[in-house]
Design goal:
Elements lengths: L3 E6 L2 E9 L5 H8 L9 E6 L2 E7 L4 E2 H6 L5 H20 L7 E2 L6 E2 L6 E2 L1 E2 L9 H15 L3 H16 L4 H21 L22 H12 L3
Antiparallel strand pairs: 1-2, 2-4, 3-4, 5-7, 6-9, 7-8
Length: 227
């Protein structure tokens, strides 16, 4: 998307969003720069000469793409992450942020390496009339292209079809993802497939909590290796 760039200041990686003066509404600035929603990275707005740049502090975060391409996530972990993203959208909506203006792509959805929880960016550049359902489904299709996990490939089309055909709201999408997540978690525990990773000793199922201890450890390893 035009207007978005990556930079680094004093060793801190940031994502910048170029805006025209006044493009970010006052209450949006208060929410973002006040770090009211923990699922959105801390932000700072710098203004001058009729322009503004919104900087997101992305230190200590991993891009979802890095985690997917390094094959450090299981399908159940991805479902938890997606549930977490929808939860962030719901919390942001409660603070009057527009779900359609969140940037959903694997380069700009981030994970906290310790918690495994998502961080997403609010980017008020596009139309406020865009369908968040279509944004979400485009995001899922992007994931399909870089995450060839057979279980995910089996789940993804049905999720996308339900979201669009049933005109789901955020609450309904969250329930759908949590149902898929719980079903997969129980399947892993009851009858692990040949070659699959055992869930013995892992944390109990709890919707939208960071993945298994094994996966959390893998994310921390990726972060320490600077990937």
């Amino acid at each position: 998307m035009d207007g978005i760039f990556h930079t680094e200041a004093m060793g801190c990686p940031k994502v910048g969003v170029k805006l025209s003066s006044g493009q970010l509404l006052y209450y949006e600035r208060a929410v973002l720069c006040g770090h009211i929603c923990p699922g959105i990275p801390p932000a700072r707005l710098i203004e001058g000469a009729g322009e503004a740049v919104l900087y997101y502090d992305c230190r200590d975060l991993l891009s979802l793409k890095a985690c997917l391409t390094k094959k450090e996530l299981l399908c159940v972990d991805l479902l938890r992450i997606l549930s977490g993203i929808v939860t962030v959208l719901m919390e942001a909506r409660d603070h009057l942020l527009v779900p359609e203006l969140f940037l959903l792509d694997t380069d700009h959805v981030f994970l906290h390496p310790k918690e495994g929880s998502p961080r997403i960016l609010y980017v008020p550049l596009g139309s406020r009339e865009t369908s968040f359902r279509r944004n979400l489904c485009s995001f899922l299709q992007e994931i399909d292209c870089i995450f060839p996990d057979p279980q995910w490939q089996a789940y993804s089309p049905g999720i996308r079809e339900a979201v669009l055909d049933q005109n789901m709201g955020l609450e309904s999408i969250l329930r759908l993802l949590q149902e898929k997540e719980q079903h997969m978690f129980q399947s892993h525990r009851s009858s692990p497939a040949e070659g699959s990773v055992s869930t013995e000793g892992e944390i109990p199922f709890e919707p939208s909590v960071g993945g298994s201890r094994k996966t959390q450890g893998a994310l921390r390893s990726l972060f320490l290796r600077g990937i």
